[in-house]
Amino acid sequence: MQNITAILKKEFRSYFNSPIAYIFITFFLGISSWLFFQSFFLVNQAEMRGFFGLMPWIFLFFIPAVTMKLWAEEKKIGTIEILMTLPIRDYEVVIGKFLACLALLAVTILLTLVVPFSVMYLGNPDVGTLITGYIGLLLMGAAYIAIGLFASTLTENQIVAFIIGIAICLTLLLIGEDIVLFKTANWLFPIFSYLGLGAHYSSILRGVLDSRDIIYYLSVIAFFLYLSTLAVESRKRR
Amino acid sequence: MIEVRELTKSYGPTVAVNKVSFEAHAGEVVGFIGPNGAGKTTTMRILTCYLTADAGSATVAGYDVLENAIDVRKNVGYLPESAPLYADMGILEYLNFMTEVRNIPKSQRKDRVKSVIDICGLDGVIQKDIGELSKGYRQRVGLAQSLIHDPPILILDEPTSGLDPSQTIEIRNLIKEIGKEKLVLFSTHILPEVAATCSRILIINNGELVANGTLEELISQVRVENKFHIAIRGEAEAITAKLHELQGIAEYTHVKTDNGVVDYEITATQEDDNIAETLFRTVVQSGWSLVELRQASVDLEQVFLHFTANAHRETSSITEPRSTEAATDTVAPSEEE
Q1: Are B307 and B210 in contact (CB under 8 A)?
Q2: Can you tell me the distance from the alpha carbon of B263 to that of A185, in angstroms, rounded to the nearest whole number?
Q3: What is d(CA A169, CA A174) in angstroms, rounded to the nearest whole number?
Q4: String of b and e for B155-192 (b: at least 16 CB within 10 Å)?
Q5: Phi and psi at residue A3, in whole multiples of 5°?
Q6: ipTM
Q7: Are B3 and B59 in contact (CB under 8 A)?
Q8: Dihedrals phi, psi of A87, to nearest 5 degrees
Q9: Chain B touched by A76 (CB under 8 Å)
Q10: pLDDT tens-digit profile of B159-171?
Q11: A234 close contact with B: CB closer than 8 A
Q12: Which of A10, A236, A238 lies nearest to residue B97, judging by beta carbons?
């Protein structure tokens, strides 16, 4: 546990040592609020469904951008050789890096609370759905992070990691979308609609925290963290 | 403290390390030398549990590198080649991070950081980010990182590459100092460094361990050929003719003629111990004057070339294995040194 905390602290600080965290937070807040408020006053409803609905697509580009460097850079400059010869287990490093990303995302999401507070100031939204919405946001974001980190373990090139991350996230997102489901074969339908990254999020947004949705996100996270650990270990047997 | 048995590792079809076996103990400074791509780094990476060997076993500080990787790593300080460090971290921040992941108790962290800063001479730059440092200082931070938990075994991959001569000497002295109580295994391309610091030398070539011993032992292995260097003032052809007749000479090479002084390299036959006297008498009797007569000294460079002959054949005219038939053939004068 102490090892995981050490890695978490180091990676989290390294985000703020470099411009990455500031650029990420600024652009994320800017783009998400702008897109939301653009239509907010037209719709003239005190709710945040539009805000939450945008998130799977905003995450698609923002999250692989913050995860891409976490392993690719270590490999590129060789620091992985010191890191992986420290008395830490591979999975502890994987979890530490994951939690550091999650912490950055949590900070960013915390800062978007300005949006619900303005909505509450302007009208009377359902606070319950706002809370479940934020929980869903964090769960879905965590799943994106696990995927992005896995993509980063596959290559030493950050751009490649970014694109692979987007590709996996996009695939998992699209298979659960109506456009794709409409055309899918009947036997694939339940599988696709269950695996879709966005579908569980939409059901959480309705205000119901179903354990199945939570289990889905937790298993996606566990699965990709496990794959990352395997990928990191595979260096030993090149 | 380090025991390696028949260690083998290949990358695809290339065998990087082939059945390497050696032992090393506390209080030794072991120099690991060999041409580029000989397998030094791979061996070190296996010993630090960064890579897994295909076959063979290795124990470090009594722990097996496969079974007890974490315990091995606790006992080893490792500086990889070219000291890869996080450029965006401050030196102090980095060393503090290392004390945390190394599980050094909170109460000792400050002392440990302070002591490695002193040892590695980082005082003057301590406020800087690692990215702002010169190569030499980066190397020192890497070394500081490897010493932070006061490990009984230190594995350093080319610790002095990229350093200026005075820094190199500092690091060498440091290695010597550490090696009094601990085991230091380090690789290098700089041969005088090995001669200056190591109590034992391992030479690896094409993945195979070709030599293992102290500098003296290795030199004596090379010296069996019993070589002499002689410079005579006189007529080159007459001298050559004389040498050709002389008993006890297995082979001679005309090195150069300079202002009437003729230089030869002479290899005595194994049985003849008095070849130097014979040569001296011959020169005097023939009425020439002897300018120089000495036993050719073998230095580490020649040892290195001797043991890595396959990779260096084109440059190692001195250490070419010679056949006995050469004794009766006149060797063509060569301009090579």
Answers
A1: yes
A2: 91
A3: 8
A4: bbbbbbbebeeebbebbbebbeebbeebbbbbbbebbe
A5: -65, -45
A6: 0.87
A7: yes
A8: -75, 60
A9: no
A10: 887 788 888 888 8
A11: no
A12: A10
